[in-house]
Design brief:
The structure is a single chain. Helix content is 42%, strand content 18%. The chain has nine helices and ten strands. An eight-stranded parallel sheet has the order 2-1-10-7-6-5-4-3.
């Protein structure tokens, strides 16, 4: 079992702290989603002019960067946004080559009032342009089960737009179950052969909150995490189990010093229970 956490969960940690804590807490990798307030990390010295130092630090710590989590959305009707996303993809493609990173996370995006069939046609056009860049860099785009593309059927609609092997799935095991009532077995049945990466979080319903639920430490909510873990184990899943602790968006949740080590303890307990 390979464990990672996204930097969304530790917005105030610098690079040395991220690496030292990852080693201390027994992680295998770090998934970059922003760094010290900058979401477009490729603009920072650590990932441009000083990139060799960053690479050396990760190598010495024996840590991987399994994924760069971008802000790219497949659905947009703005030509200028498409061009911006293409440039963002080129930048992350460059970083993937530097760090031997196989995946770049992308979103489907919100479609608003546009009919879904029309939205799918727009996605098809944008996706073709993005995949041409992904193929150039030999990096795989992983579409997260998120926003208006959370249901497995909607994700499948996107997968069916192309034969390219450079489009696969990131199963956020929380969103389909919590926001759509989709059972994990159904998600796997529809998407399992394309799921290359997973995000993990827990929550419980809470009225009066913007999302209708409250994020919490692993095991304190009611997401069927053990069922999902056992399902992945049974199906032979070999990808990363990545904690997405949304501290940036939800500052009220526990500090990373609490949540990030707790995740390892929880996941290793699940693993031992399954042996």
């Amino acid at each position: 079992m390979k464990l990672a956490f996204t930097t969304l969960g530790c917005p105030e940690w610098n690079l040395d702290t991220i690496i030292s804590k990852a080693v201390e807490f027994d992680y295998d990798g770090v998934d970059f989603r922003g760094y010290l307030g900058e979401m477009e990390i490729y603009k920072l010295p650590e990932f441009s002019s000083d990139i060799e130092t960053t690479k050396r630090k990760f190598n010495e710590a024996d840590l991987e960067i399994p994924c760069f989590s971008s802000s790219i959305r497949l659905f947009t009707t703005s030509d200028s946004e498409v061009e911006n996303f293409k440039e963002e993809l080129r930048q992350y493609g460059r970083l993937c080559q530097e760090f031997n990173t196989p995946y770049i996370r992308v979103f489907g995006g919100g479609i608003g009032d546009i009919p879904r069939q029309e939205a799918i046609q727009i996605v098809e056009n944008n996706l073709a342009q993005l995949l041409a860049i992904a193929e150039q860099f030999q990096v795989t785009l992983i579409l997260e089960t998120h926003d208006d593309w959370t249901r497995c059927e909607n994700v499948l609609d996107v997968l069916n737009l192309t034969q390219s092997k450079y489009l696969q799935v990131l199963w956020d095991v929380h969103h389909p179950y919590r926001t759509k009532g989709e059972e994990p077995e159904k998600t796997w049945d529809k998407l399992g052969d394309r799921i290359q990466y997973t995000h993990w979080k827990d929550s419980y319903p809470k009225e009066g909150t913007p999302r209708g639920y409250q994020l919490c430490l692993m095991g304190d909510g009611d997401i069927p995490l053990k069922r999902i873990f056992d399902l992945l184990d049974e199906k032979g899943y070999e990808g990363y189990y990545t904690l997405e602790w949304e501290k940036v968006w939800c500052p009220e949740i526990e500090e990373p010093e609490v949540a990030i080590p707790q995740y390892v303890q929880y996941m290793k307990q699940l693993e031992s229970e399954g042996e």
